Amino acid sequence: MSGASNERGRAGMTVSTHEVLGREVAMPVQIRAATAFTSMVSVSAGAAQRLIDHTGLQVLRWRPGRAVCVLVFVDYIDGDLGPYNEFGVCFLVREHGRRGGGVLSDLRSLVRGQGCAYIHRLPVDGDFTLAAGRGIWGFPKTLAEFDVDHESPVKRGSLRADDALIASLEVSKGVSVPDSPSATTLTAYSHLDGVTRVTPWSMRAAQTRTRPGGASLTLGTHPFADELRTLDIGRTLMSSSVGAFTMTFGDAETV
């Protein structure tokens, strides 16, 4: 359970704070050290849209009938919400104010990096981050068990809940990408308890490696895995690993 309040900071600026499980969380939330690996896969646009229709958002298509789903394992090493593991299932979507448009327009948005991320599933392995994620941002966090290797050249992660395998993901070593001198600003959507929210965040990544393809996904017997099967997951478009990154999360706003 969380509650929000506002107070004046040292410079006279209004600072938002939230109470989560008896602790105060001041905004923006800082992630000082984390690592991740991810697979961007092609999925059925129709199936993905049916999963997110209730949000009012629309998926971006990279070709007729196909959308983009991002699967990501993250190890949060040092941050305001404590250390924890996370697995995300995200769809690349249009901005909530933009509806309609053709495949060419969608593809142009993807190429220009103008797509937004709708966070559809977000299992974690910590009670505090679970409560904070759901209470502050409306992120659909649930508890799960993780077995993850972020250190080896081939990154590996598996996820279990209710004594059943959800998914296992392997990401091969990619080509080194130069570190960016500036932070990347991202827009994330979430939907919880009938409310769609948008959260801005910024990320500065280092030690990034990427490549076309390069990932292998195995689905288990959990209902979450069955939901992923309905997406008709096709080829891996791109896979990446990020050796070190920092992030800053702002407050969520209702769409």
UniProtKB/TrEMBL annotation:
Q: Which Pfam families match?
A: ADC
Q: Which InterPro entries match?
A: Acetoacetate_decarboxylase (IPR010451), ADC_dom_sf (IPR023375)
Its recorded name reads Acetoacetate decarboxylase
| Organism of derivation | Williamsia phyllosphaerae
